[in-house]
Amino acid sequence: MPSISLDVDVNCFNSFTLCSVIFPDPYLNTDAGTMSPFEHGEVFVLDDGGEVDLDLGNYERFLDIKLTRDNNITTGKIYQSVLEKERRGDYLGKTVQVVPHITDAIQEWIERVASIPVDGKEGPADVCVIELGGTIGDIESMPFIEALGQFSYHVGPGNFCLIHVSLVPVLNVVGEQKTKPTQHSVRGLRGLGLTPNILACRSTKALEDNVKAKLSQFCHVAAENILTLYDVPNIWHIPLLLRDQKAHEAILKGLNLLGVAREPDLQEWTARTRVYDILHEPVRIAMVGKYTGLSDSYLSVLKALLHASVACRRKLVVEWVAAGDLEDVTATEAPDVYKNAWDLLKGSDGVLVPGGFGDRGVQGKILAAKYARENKVPFLGICLGMQIAVIEFARSALGLHDANSTEFDPETSHPCVIFMPEGSKTYMGGTMRLGSRRTYFKVPNCKSAKLYSNASFVDERHRHRYEVNPNMVPQFENAGLSFVGRDETGRRMEIIELPSHPYFVGTQFHPEFKSRPGKPSALFLGLIAAASGQLDAVLQNYGNESKLLPNGISNGKPSVKTYQNGNAIKSSNGSLNGVYSNGNGVHH
């Protein structure tokens, strides 16, 4: 089983048939589900319901594969599995220790997951990328480093290639690139039993030749295996940067795969990157959230907005609006902050209210949804964002002024959002409605169904404890709010639309988790298209292979299958500006 320990962009691995990823994270949590977004960024949700580190989302986006919860190893998972074995008596009375029991468990996990076929393909992947998070010298990562040292000896030369990522700082005063941090980290790594084959050096500018020579001499790494990862206009340049430095050849050589791998095909990626670079006409989206102080809290949402913006040939400008700043209490306590928040909201072309938990900022989100609804501003509400839109509609359109979610007011007389019956209020981790679930379109001619290539159902990922109260749905529909998507029972609301509005959509699921650079999420594409005045043309031409999209570029070849009434039909997957968009959640 060829393995790679890698901590850099992985798109260069498209020279292999298939690539899998394992991400060991040394924290003691079982998974990322209970961690604060302020501390650890967003929680990324996988098809199987795994709540994992946001780095798994990066791998899914760049490699365009679907991973499982087992692709994310944590210290908590390893210790839990070892202690379960000890309780069962599997160790036959032996003293259970970090070495060999914890390190053996880590190696067994890696070998097991690396052998699992990727995306339902036959046989294991050609290459498995293992990214060990943290910093050399961290106490919590020591068992993983020891395990990888043993693992490299176990699989032997030619089956293990270690890439060490290190910072080469530049002193601004003299502009000198300093190699000491990398020298010391490599020395520490070698002292722990691991010798890097390749150095990936992060710096503000390309490494000078004399710096490479110095690193090669002191770190015992060939100069051609020292990669420089300097600042670029956008992250999509990184695969091209790695290719130009022949990073793939260095990796292939380390794994004895030079004779079997093909050259990286980055033609489409290069074209998309060039499009990204030349965008100048802005589209402004107000992100009204609770965790606006850390952009990583909404990383997948930002990436989905970016994918859709590039597809629509618009330069994305995200206006961060802290939901609490829109509330009346802020107008009293900090009028300048209040005014600035509302100026940002009113100056935006579209409004997005992402998911979240807790009652802080809820009133501000409700006000943002009200503004977007009343002023015909394109709106997308995700998870809590959809629930917020329902609460606002109940208060404004139905006159139910105390309408609320039982999450925020358990005693409300009009609970339009309620706790799901199968949920748990005792245990927080892993007890939500998680993972891929099916949504059926009940209104075939709605905007959402059209954006999903007129599919009859879609599979998208969920993460929530509360849902729209099904007993109040008739009241909402009589007042003009349409629940166009529901689950298989018809009682769980998944997608809302306001037919009288240019684009007012809310989803209980998280469409951002399946967005890809070349395949933007359908509903994010709808938001950006509506915000940039292209929605009518997109809806009219979507799925029609014979027509051209607004910029005069063909929408691509018919290449996917969608399902209507259970029967497979052939349809075009649509494209904007030559960038494919297949809706991602459509059953193919």
Automatic annotation (TrEMBL):
One GO biological process term: 'de novo' CTP biosynthetic process
One Pfam family in the UniProt entry: GATase
Gene3D superfamilies: 3.40.50.880, P-loop containing nucleotide triphosphate hydrolases (3.40.50.300)
Associated pathway: Pyrimidine metabolism; CTP biosynthesis via de novo pathway; CTP from UDP: step 2/2
Residue span(s) of domain Glutamine amidotransferase: 295-528
Catalytic activity: UTP + L-glutamine + ATP + H2O = CTP + L-glutamate + ADP + phosphate + 2 H(+)
EC code: 6.3.4.2
Keyword Glycoprotein: no
CDD domains, per the entry: CTPS_N, GATase1_CTP_Synthase
Molecular function as annotated in GO: ATP binding; CTP synthase activity; identical protein binding; metal ion binding
SUPFAM superfamilies: Class I glutamine amidotransferase-like, P-loop containing nucleoside triphosphate hydrolases
InterPro entries to which the protein is assigned, alphabetical: Class_I_gatase-like, CTP_synthase, CTP_synthase_N, GATASE, GATase1_CTP_Synthase, P-loop_NTPase
UniProt KW keywords: ATP-binding, Glutamine amidotransferase, Ligase, Magnesium, Metal-binding, Nucleotide-binding, Pyrimidine biosynthesis
Domain CTP synthase N-terminal stretches: 24-257
Family: Belongs to the CTP synthase family.
Functional note: Catalyzes the ATP-dependent amination of UTP to CTP with either L-glutamine or ammonia as the source of nitrogen.
NCBIfam families in the cross-refs: PRK05380.1, PyrG
Name of the molecule in the record: CTP synthase
Originating organism: Populus alba x Populus x berolinensis
